[in-house]
């Protein structure tokens, strides 16, 4: 048996266990589901030392292995982040549950039409060096009554294992839900990701969180096997300083957009109206110098939309480009970037409206930073990821109300 075949068996076993346990969660009353989430919040506090110790071991190993600063930031769980994770669970527990049956209308012959919302069953999730995502995704699956098979890379596996064993699993058991509904693939082998997207009968939907070519390749592999995906492959926020921008506000938004460098919605590409480019650039450079961030100026030796958060050695970089006008700024944002999020800084409402109408990406902002494109920040609940697909379906921060199947039922009136 090859290594890939052995890993595939491990993933398949996790899928089988999750599928067997799924009815326990699907049938659970709302108070049990919310009780599990509150229990997870309590256990994050009770098991704080164990979680932080496991994460510290992961961070030390990744540092010794040469992981870059931005990726290390994603990997690290601080006491403050742990407290934030617990608070997000408490808020999610208090969020309303999806209506399971919604009245649509009356039909001829004394019949009525309703929409029923059913769990998918088992949903997979693949994510890399972000152990907090273990809790984010598991909580969304639990709230939507879906079982899950989680797979993370070797860098975060120790942290994720501790979170599942000491926080998630026991909290489910405490309220009478089978703890096997949330499975963590124990193998760090990359082949596990490919195996996860190759099981259409057991795991028909997989959430892909990560950035770059590996996530896009998993999306293609999933399609070949008939597995649907909610993929977050690329990021990078855009900020456009318009001809009518308040420069002081623009500089403040630049600062606020760079508080963390290893996240997808940070400032990545700065566009400046050509008429203001020469006068604005020294002020921008001064702000970035104060933050320890380099400015990549034209002519660029890289694609304009290159995502610096993925660079191990140059994540502390922002690309700058002059543009002709609002239309040109929207064109560059649409054609040269991932389409995650873009902001226009302007005091001219018609210019803002033109940009908002022209930009086709997932999130658009007027005088506000793209860092706000986040499920917890915008919607008050954790997200499973930010979907930037250009087809109908859940787009933007994907949260528990998105993770259901629609079923029509015709019933007696």
The CATH H-level homologous superfamily of the largest domain:
Aldehyde Dehydrogenase, Chain A, domain 1
Q: What is the C-level CATH assignment of the largest domain?
A: Alpha Beta
What is the strand tally?
16
Oligomer: single chain
Under CATH, the topology of the largest domain can be stated as Aldehyde Dehydrogenase, Chain A, domain 1
Amount of helix:
40-55%
Mean pLDDT: 94
Largest sheet entry: 6 strands, parallel
Protein structure class: alpha/beta
* Beta strand %: 15-25%
* Gyration radius over CA: 23 Å
- The assigned CATH architecture of the largest domain is 3-Layer(aba) Sandwich
Distance linking N and C termini: 58 Å
Low-confidence stretches: none
Descriptive account of the structure:
The protein is an alpha/beta fold. It folds into two domains: 3-233 and 392-412, Aldehyde Dehydrogenase, Chain A, domain 1; 237-375, Aldehyde Dehydrogenase, Chain A, domain 2, CATH 3.40.309.10. Helices cover 44% and strands 21% of the residues. It has 14 helices and 16 strands. It has helices spanning 3-26, 30-46, 48-64, 69-75, 79-94, 132-143, 157-174, 191-196, 213-224, 247-256, 274-291, 326-336, 349-358, 375-379, and strands at 101-107, 111-119, 122-127, 147-152, 182-184, 205-209, 228-232, 237-241, 267-273, 294-296, 317-323, 341-345, 363-366, 385-387, 396-398, 404-412. It has a six-stranded parallel β-sheet with strand order 10-11-9-8-12-13, with helices on both faces. Strands 5-4-3-6-7 form a five-stranded parallel β-sheet, sandwiched between helices.
